[in-house]
Give the backbone structure.
Amino acid sequence: MSGLVLKLSPKERVLINGAVIENGDRRSRLSIVTPNVNILRLRDAIHPEEATTPVRRVCYAAQLVLTGDATSEESRHPLLRRIEELSQILTDPDSRKLLSQATDAVLSDQYYQCLKALRGLLPREDRLLNTRPH
């Protein structure tokens, strides 16, 4: 993730390569210059008990790589298979585009980008399952 700029709200927490970092009392910007850093905004994190729908389960699986709880090598094939399963159900052009982005991200070991693309499917999944957004 070379050249990534994180804009953090006051007291916002972010996980960077397994370390939780909390911002101070003011908004700030962090420039991440090291390539291939695993980053997860904790406000975007899906807790295990929330991974109860197909898209949330795939998001959670991608998130495990970012938190260091799973390796890229052990996660790549299962994630690609789950994304393919979602593409059999979510066939509209917008969903297809997001699923394609998620696939490309996994293939290039960019799990934050994968998670970001998959999270774009959550509102659609909530509407389809007629559930309340989390």
User: Anything to note?
Assistant: The radius of gyration is 15 Å. The chain has a mean pLDDT of 91.
